[in-house]
Amino acid sequence: MSIDLIYPSLYEALSLADASLQLWISITFMLMLGGTVRTMWFVRAARRDSEEQ
């Protein structure tokens, strides 16, 4: 095998891995953001319930 055959497939694999890594990072960020917002909403609801009593 020559380097011409190896290099494009290696480059393709790296770019594919980079794309999937970016996807996972964005998914993780969105989940963390959603969890933070949900936690704040729960805290606010609990605080409102304790004020009403």
TrEMBL record:
Keywords: Membrane, Transmembrane, Transmembrane helix. It comes from the Bacteria. The keyword Membrane applies. The chain crosses the membrane at residues 23-43. The keyword Transmembrane helix applies. This is Uncharacterized protein. The lineage of its organism: Bacteria, Pseudomonadati, Pseudomonadota, Gammaproteobacteria, Lysobacterales.
